[in-house]
Write a structure and sequence with these properties.
mainly alpha
């Protein structure tokens, strides 16, 4: 159990430190899906969908991945407002990596939303089998998978930031001085 946990920590650290892994995994999944479609055409989810259904997916994806970008701002704000020794150490040691990760998440969300909007504009409203229209669907699938992987990255980073701020808040509560006690005669001091 300890070896599996240590191995998963190494894999996670490698993944956090290397932003290109998301693109490689998304590209691999699209290639695997393309190979599957070659042998089993029924697995072409976007190709077999009605044009109106594809257009609904494009517009919905644009909205959802735009929200992903806003969540990255929340995570940045959470870390920026956190105080304490652990947070200071994290900002000093991992600030560059965190900045690159959040920038990557935000940019991917914006790019995926733009790809979804472009697919909405380019993909025709009537059934068509032109290679350009087919390419649009595959580019959209790649952008959508990449955005999903970036969301997983964001949730992983956000989980760590929340844990860090929670630990520091608990330690700060232990160090708090006792609150001052109000003087019951305070209101009467003007009367005298």
């Amino acid at each position: 159990m300890k070896k599996a946990k240590a191995f998963s920590g190494v894999v996670r650290d490698f993944w956090i430190d290397h932003l290109w892994v998301d693109s490689a995994v998304a590209l691999g999944l699209v290639a695997l899906h393309a190979a599957l479609v070659t042998f089993y055409p029924v697995t072409d989810v976007f190709g077999n969908a009605q044009p109106a259904d594809r257009r609904a997916v494009y517009s919905s994806a644009a909205i959802v991945v735009s929200l992903l970008g806003s969540f990255s701002g929340v995570a940045i704000g959470q870390l920026g407002s956190a105080k304490g020794a652990r947070t200071t150490a994290l900002k000093k040691q991992g600030g560059q990596i965190l900045a690159r990760n959040w920038q990557s998440i935000f940019r991917t969300a914006m790019l995926a939303a733009l790809v979804a909007l472009m697919a909405l504009l380019i993909d025709p409203s009537v059934p068509s089998a032109g290679w350009g229209f087919v390419l649009v669907r595959w580019v959209f699938e790649f952008a959508l998978l990449l955005a999903i992987l970036k969301f997983v990255r964001l949730s992983s980073l956000f989980f760590e930031v929340i844990n860090l701020t929670t630990q520091e808040a608990a330690e700060a509560e232990e160090k708090l001085a006792e609150a001052p006690r109000p003087n019951p005669n305070w209101g009467n001091r003007r009367a005298s």
